[in-house]
Amino acid sequence: MATLEMAQWRDWLDRDRLAAWMEAQGLGTGTIAEVTPLAGGTQNILLRFRYADRMMVMRRPSLHPRPEADKTMQREARMLAALADSDVPHPRLIAACDDPSVLGASFYLMAEVEGFNATQGLPETHHDPAVQHQMGLALIDPIVALGKVDYRAAGLIDFGKPDDFLARQVARWQRQLVSYAQFPDWQGPSGLPYVDRIGSWLEAHRPARFAPGILHGDYHMANVMYAHDGPEVAAVIDWELTTVGDPLLDLGWVLATWPGPDMETTTTLDVQPWVGFPKAPELVERYRAGSERDLSAIDWYTVLACYKLAIILEGSNARASAGLAEQETAAMLHKGAVGLLERARGIIA
């Protein structure tokens, strides 16, 4: 797990080599000091440190990365660079390295974000129901802004494959689900209620057209930093699934993971206390107020997000059946996958 590896940074971080590379990039001179691991996802390592009298954050793949980890890291850095002059709040890119001889993998450096992650605890000032209501609405603003970025003008014309983006989705995730059969003790798709029915519904009700744009790909409250002094989003983080496709899937992702009467919390969103956040329809209206995109099929995007995220979460359960993932965590993620499919079934019923 990357969290454990971050605690072992002394074993892999060559400070002299990194400092030499940074000096060669014109980032000043100095030594790497005040190194601190930061909490993050299980697939990447985050380290904060001081260099040349300023704090910055390094992001790199796990020490035991997936095959495409270096490419993913390079795509993240490219996206952050492309968003530099946009209205999308994001960590400012300082420099990126695709030469594995420096630290053993691709990595990039970004400015430290002043803010907090709501899923890791709320400051007392943000326990106020009125502040929480504004936090929920503010969550929508970055994806409204992201959907307005002209990906061609931003130099991202080759970043994704927007043609037939929606038409490819169900088949893509069906293949992913089928691939879990390689783990012999996995219970199979029978453990995921309604998954076939939901896939068929998505194919039958797919929107006929959409306006291509940039999407984050994994957008929810756990992947943003909020400002300490207000309800605004200070930065959107964890861009590893970003692509060019249909930006409305980001809104669908928020709605799929948003607590409600049918699902109080999810595996990706557990914020306490939850006392003033808006209801899901208010989030849709916030998006509508800032965007010209057609939201008439927003239920479809929500169902697709439930379907896709459920299949992703089930992957941990499948790997755990072969002893490749922690059983307790896998059971929690499987429960989350079932909850997402139950939510989707409630929408299409």
Q: In summary, what is this structure?
A:
With 349 residues, the protein is of the alpha+beta class. It has helices at 2-7, 15-24, 69-82, 100-103, 129-138, 141-148, 165-179, 195-204, 248-257, 280-290, 298-321, 327-348, and strands at residues 33-37, 44-51, 54-61, 93-97, 107-111, 213-215, 224-226, 233-236, 243-245. The longest helix is centred in the C-terminal third of the chain and has 24 residues, at 298-321.
Low-confidence stretches: none
Tell me the major beta sheet: 5 strands, antiparallel
Structural class: alpha+beta
Tell me the series of helices and strands, N- to C-terminal.
HHEEEHEHEHHHHEEEEHHHH
Strand content: 5-15%
Indicate the mean pLDDT. Answer: 92
Shape: globular
Helix count, DSSP H or I runs of 4 or more residues: 12
Helix content estimate: 40-55%
How many strands appear in the DSSP assignment? Answer: 9
Strand order of the largest sheet: 1-2-3-5-4
First and last CA, distance:
39 Å
Rg, alpha carbons: 20 Å
Question: Could you explain the architecture of this structure?
Answer:
The strands form three sheets. The protein has a five-stranded antiparallel sheet with strand order 1-2-3-5-4. A two-stranded antiparallel sheet has the order 6-9. Strands 7-8 form a two-stranded antiparallel ribbon. It is built from twelve helices and nine strands. It is α+β, with helices and mostly antiparallel strands and 349 residues long. It has helices at residues 2-7, 15-24, 69-82, 100-103, 129-138, 141-148, 165-179, 195-204, 248-257, 280-290, 298-321, 327-348; strands spanning 33-37, 44-51, 54-61, 93-97, 107-111, 213-215, 224-226, 233-236, 243-245. Helix 8 packs antiparallel against helix 11, helix 9 crosses helix 11 and helix 11 packs antiparallel against helix 12 (327-348). The mean pLDDT is 92. The two termini are 39 Å apart.
